[in-house]
Amino acid sequence: MPTRAIKAIFYTRFHHEKGNRVLHQVPRGSITPSTLPSALPTPLFPFLSVTQYLIPTQQFCDRLLTFCVNHHRVIGYPVCIREGKYSRNEFIFNFAVVIGENELDWACYGEVVRKLGRLLRGLEEQGGFLSREEAGVWDEDDGGGVGSDDEGLSGFGIGSGSKVYALCEMVLEDLNNYAECMIPIDDSNTINLKLFPTRPPPPPILAHQVPLLTISLSSLQTPISSDLTLNRILSYINGVNSISHIAQLADTDLSLTRKAIQHLVYYGCLVLLDIFSFAAIYAPTAEIGGFIVDADLKEECMRYVKVPRLRLGSSARTIRVGSESEKSRDERGSTSSSASQHNEAGGSTLKTSEFDSPGTTQMNDESEDEWQIDHETLITLYTSLRQGLTLKNWVLENLDLLGGIDVRRFITFGIIKGFLYRVHKYAIATSTALPPAPPTSLQTSAATSTANPSRDSDTATIRGTTQRHHPSASNSQLPSQPNVPSHSHFQHQNPSISLHRPSIASTPNLNPSKTEDLHGLNSFVSDRERESGLPMLKFLDGMHCFDEICTELGLPEKVVEGKVRGMGEGSGAVIHR
């Protein structure tokens, strides 16, 4: 992160008789006026107005202080050493850095100033590194007052060989040019400083997101971390598998997988994408204009999306990777469900291993056999994407222009660079009556059964481990529902469950004294209604996209959309945004 953010570095001291003085400043004239030819014409800010913040009271010493003045930010760490060998038993100094007021990542400079102040405090306490150079200086001072020219302080000029001035100069140049510095002080002391960028906290990691590495794993040491989960999932991060699918393939816990991905996102090792699907809708953003005028970006796009041609045997018949037939086959597989991971092959890219046979397949590197992709084609393809047009239909409309282009990489490149965005589908409930209430006939039947226990009811309720129905019900059969388990199975699974009766004739009589069991009929929901309504209920607020819903429920997109639209007339709707 080498930058020229540091405008000046200066070293200021407090004298018990002559007050605050700037003993060293780099560059010259940046804090106090100087008559040297290399000095700045005017100081960056008036020193007199900020002396109370540079040399504050003892309560604020040994703390990082920062303030803004004249469009500059001054970061200091005033230090007060209390010992009897100094005048008034204290030695107060400050080593401060000046950067621009609009510098966003100024916290890293604060850590450097804090570390430098503590190091200089240790050097002064060990051998008087700072106070040794001041011997006789204050006696020769002409009393020019605060902010006087540092040329009047003999022994502190450029030609005097001052170690403190050399330290200021080396810190400024090295941090601006290399973002780090290593300065030897003596045989046993060395100052090491480094600017560590302050990274923002990583965003929440969702199970349906697709991680894509931005670094080469082969260039790193193996293993790159002692985290067992991280080492297990790295081989499955390919830009196609979602985080949920990666956890399944690596046989790792989903929460630990998300934390490992979050660490990689924090250090900029990968980016998070949406699940690729031919049923999805993509559209350009306002940044598409930058892609149109940037020739380097278009060249990078061509290298990223281009796929090679293949030859089969002696006939030298050229195969187009991602041909129409293969695309249509992959489209049928990928549009079924993006979240259920049936499209993990990446859509339209044809695997070269299908043609790898000894002596029959070879890569054609001749220039005349390379796919010709120009900038105008890329611009036409990106600008033809729009809302309301699925990627599948877009491919069918532009088959003649997609020769040699990997569609998945084509879309992914636009998403990463920011000039494409995904139009997501959301489920929203337009009615509050979800899940649907029990049919009126069941409520009427329940009320009738309560009033007249001799009549058969439509349900029998089992609560806890005690059967609340007629003893003969334990041997009753359910011929019309062969897939429904026996009563004992339900009794073991759930302490309170309502069961369907196959017919009124086979319903046993309920014990009239146990009428409290019929209260469960008021909240009765059939198995089909429960399966369709309850799992979907928390996703119908319009804040969960279909990728998230499909991943959480493990269902294809078409099934989820059918459940949303089939919840009842006007109960559920699907929106795009």
TrEMBL record:
Source domain of life: Eukaryota
Pfam families: NPR2
Region entry Disordered, spans: 321-368, 432-518
Gene Ontology molecular function, alphabetical: GTPase activator activity
Composition skew (Polar residues), residue ranges: 334-343, 472-497, 504-513
Compositionally biased tracts (Low complexity): 432-451
Gene Ontology CC annotation, any one: vacuolar membrane
Protein name according to UniProt: Nitrogen permease regulator 2
Naturally occurring in which organism (per UniProt): Cucurbitaria berberidis CBS 394.84
